[in-house]
Please model this.
Amino acid sequence: MRLPLHWLGVAPFFIFALMFLILPTTYLVLGAFQNDQGGFTLDNIYALTQPSILAAYWISIRISLASALLGALAGFAIALAIVRGGLPNWVRSATMTFSGVASNFAGVPLAFAFLATLGRLGLVTVLMRALGVDIYNDLGFNILSFWGLTLTYLYFQIPLMVVIITPAIDGLKKEWSEAAATLGATNFQYWRMVAIPVLWPSFLGTVILLFANAFGAIATAYALTGSSLNIVPILLYAQIRGDVLHNPHLGYALAFGMIFVTGLANVFYIWFRTRSERWLK
Amino acid sequence: MKRSSVWAWVTFIVGASYFFIPLIATLEFSLRMRRGEYSFDAYRIVFGDDRFQATFSFSVIIAVFTILLGVLVVVPTAYWIRLRMPHLRPIVEFITLLPLIIPAIVIVFGYIRMYGSNSPLPFLATTWGTNALLTIGYATLALPYMYRAVDTGLRTIDVRTLTEAAQILGAGWATIITRIILPNVLIAVLSGAFLTFAIVIGEFTMASLLNRPAFGPYLQNIGANRAYEPAALAIIAFAITWGCMSVIQFLARFAPRSANRPN
Model:
């Protein structure tokens, strides 16, 4: 008998993925559906609908969605400007380099940077006050709020979009716009009927990626707001540290809810993509 | 063409201001520690802080081990998938993308529950075990980037011919991987390594929940207790990220563009 030796080559990877990615996640998901005695229950999932937890999910989803959509649109505009805008070459290479850096500049330091900019003593706040506009009292702005956090998240969302979508825009073949022009299409028609349908799957995929990126992020929000803004990751963080919900299984349900939301986003993505691919054929 | 240039410039300048104003503001803030004049006092205090040195070196060491572990897990797999088991590629790619879908905080929560002191595999019972678990957690976070980097590198070389040539000359698998494949994808591996470094060095969630004295929790602690030092630390962190990305770009110049023969 021949041993299936060729499996040995991939065994370390699968064992690693199983032990440190799949099993720990499965453990939490199963725990979400169990009570203290280990029996099956839906109580934990039902407990997620209590107002404070539901509010946490709602604000998390709103911040992630807003920062993903705004980030994707702004990133797309910038990518379009550097690829198709007829800008000098250095602008493109500088933007790409900077985007690589900024998309990885997240977490605690990013919170510090925005506190120094838009915090109560931040440079922009102080300058605006000198100009007669108090963004805190007059405009009702607060860095520790929905818009404050969204604005901060955009600092890594926009560059991530630029990094991912620029190659896709590069991939638009010149022949397509020439062919469209030969057939008498206007620039607008070319974009509506050729370019956007081609770019749509990558655009949508990136929006989903940005959404998951913001939804799971905790360090920036925690350093920025402490625990004053109750988004889901911060609630889960507090639960892991000290069982603030007084029910370990509710903690599992909270984690399950996070995977459920990001997972659902991906299902939407796959659904949209298969639809658009069928349409492209 | 002239009109299209105008909107492109406007977009670029608006974008650039959004990205540069926070950097300028942070830099200005970090220099304001001494009343009435600009000084590097905040930086002097940060660099002189024992905890800065201790936590930063801790995170650097963890990052190095994370990179080694990542290479060990990813390179043989990516190679083997290309050479012998291309039908497994979709599954492997899906698994490497999972860390982008499952938030880091959920992964580390699973570790805490599964590998506690009373479990069959009590990683968390000892300090070394916890350090190992942190390294493993970081390797998981870096998996999507490491795998993509290595796989892109492998695409540019002719894996099959190189392997067969080495086999004809009598090389074993270990020799093939360490002396033929790894040197050929070294630039790709290094790119993945520096990206991993940039992600790991200031990571907060996992280090904090596993109670390790890493740089991320230190940053958070300073942020909660000091005024000017956080701004200085933000500038330092930005400089580190910039450094890593510059190295990656520099390395990319030496990367081969395509294989002599597509495989």
